[in-house]
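Hi R.,

Quick one: here's the tRNA-uridine aminocarboxypropyltransferase sequence you asked about.
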Amino acid sequence: MSRPRCMQCQRPLSHCLCRLIPRLPSQTHLLILQHPDEQRHALNTARLAALGLLNARLEIGEVFAELPAWLDQGYRDCLLFPGESARVLPVQGDDRPLRLIVPDGTWRKARRLLYCNPLLQTLPRVCLPDGLSSRYRLRKAPQAGALSTIEAVVVALQLQEGEGRFAELLAPFEALIDGQIAAMGDVLYQRHHSPKPTQPAD
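And here's the predicted structure, written out as tokens:
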């Protein structure tokens, strides 16, 4: 029998994160396109990002037939996804505010979203700078600079609109990680996930 869940954050009621989720304004609009498999992920950070921002929208699916209607509408649309043509944030343009379209899923599933929605492939691409590291202490990043969706959103918004303005978005993310570590137990966490000490050079 499944445990009762919060209708908003989708966490078990005993571990509800809603008290930590802010409601932050932003000039930049976030359109997060989530692969359906991510809904069941224990760390559904895209949902936390969408709940924490007043100017954000979360859509779940693999093919988004209504995507053309969601785009433009007074915004400059850019795809937050690496590629040879991607420009590092922040980006300047005309007087219209920026809209970031953010695919949410593993790298393979995110690329699948682009394949299934060719309109995404026509959008200008933006990316984050090199050298970032994730706070997700329970998972080894699949590649250098790989962040969870909520971390990528926070970095992108702070680059575009100002450092420190969106750090509060990470509070439920940090609590979620701390809760998972507590459930695992310190001994098991230290054995499998704690950073290994570096060996001194000879």
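Residues 15 and 179 are 8 Å apart (CA to CA).

Cheers,
M.
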